[in-house]
Design goal:
This protein is mainly beta. The protein has a single domain, classed as Sandwich (Immunoglobulin-like), CATH 2.60.40.2000. The protein is 11% helix and 53% strand. Strand 1 and strand 2 form a beta hairpin. The mean pLDDT is 83. It comes from Paracerasibacillus soli. This is Sporulation protein YabP.
Length: 99
């Protein structure tokens, strides 16, 4: 075994993919948990971190917890990841979310 060429980056448990069709249908894989959602915002825990999806008239079309697949329909305006590096932003978002 050649230790010099070994990839030491941690690999996610599952693949994580986002597929957006015409800003109306979003399919996401690698979802661990749906933390909260309403018609304007979804908060998902994925294998790559927390994902926030914002839009208008958002609806949960499909949820497969065992496979980690979520489908959301509605007008998608924004998708953003909340990383550990941006803890202040995350705290502000969560405090706003749970008022």
């Amino acid at each position: 075994m050649n230790y010099y060429n070994k990839d030491i980056r941690p690999q996610p448990e599952k693949d994580h993919q986002l597929k957006l069709n015409n800003r109306r249908l979003l399919e996401i894989t690698g979802v661990k948990e749906v933390d909260s959602f309403d018609s304007e915002e979804f908060l998902l825990q994925t294998v790559m971190g927390y994902l926030i999806i914002r839009g208008h008239n958002l609806q949960l079309k499909n949820l497969d917890v065992s496979e980690g697949i979520v489908s959301i329909k509605g007008k998608v305006y924004e998708m953003a990841y909340v990383d550990e590096e941006h803890q202040e932003k995350a705290k502000g978002f969560f405090s706003k979310l749970f008022r």
